[in-house]
């Protein structure tokens, strides 16, 4: 869509590969950073934005915490997830916020989870932290809308990624069945009858980032083929 894209991750090798594959007329770049170190991230982003800003669109999208029931989670597991998600999301927001205000245009899109509508079994820490991110985002939507800045959450369902393939493989091994059987079972619980494609999630994010979505603010948008069992 013509944007200049900056990607942030821990692996410089992977970042280079992503940037080299990006199309469009914009100049693309990357930042090597670790969301488990929010204070270090804060200093890195402050310097990068000062030299390369302003930025109009922020997409927060980081991997979820390990699985397990909430009552068995340790304090360190909750703290780690809180730092990686809410604190680092907040660092990213505050890094670009002043530029968005000056430009009179901002789009903040958080990729979280359908668990903010319906908690997912066996994901106790994730359910808890994703919910905190959702409420942080709703609060920001109320605070920032008057500056031309919208804040929304996208809630992905099962999406055809390497991570999902790993999950299917692990479940198949545990149950003593084939990976195809696990996939078929998952597809059977989705009203549209299939797993989502990564680009379908991307298209929803791109719309929310565009001027066409200027009056959409403070929502949770499931992109899950109808799997979530509530409105």
What secondary-structure arrangement, pairings included, does this model have?
Elements lengths: L5 E4 L2 H10 L7 E4 L5 H15 L4 E4 L14 H29 L2 E6 L12 H21 L4 E8 L5 H14 L3 H10 L9 H12 L10 E4 L8
Parallel strand pairs: 1-2, 3-4, 4-5, 5-6
Helix pairs in contact: 2-3, 3-4, 5-6
The main pleated sheet reads as:
4 strands, parallel
Strand content: 5-15%
Return the structural class. Answer: alpha/beta
Helical residues, percent? 40-55%
Order of helices and strands: EHEHEHEHEHHHE
> Number of helix segments?
7
Describe this protein with a few key phrases.
231 residues; alpha/beta; Rossmann fold; 2 domains; two-stranded parallel ribbon; 7 helices; 6 strands; globular
Structure description:
This protein is an alpha/beta fold. It has two domains: 152 residues, Rossmann fold; 38 residues, no CATH class. It is built from seven helices and six strands. Strands 3-4-5-6 form a four-stranded parallel beta sheet, with helices on both faces. Helix 2 packs parallel to helix 3, helix 3 runs parallel beside helix 4 and helix 5 crosses helix 6. The longest helix has 29 residues. It is globular, with a radius of gyration of 18 Å. It starts with 5 loop residues before the first strand and ends in an 8-residue tail after the last strand. The model has no long low-confidence stretch (mean pLDDT 95).
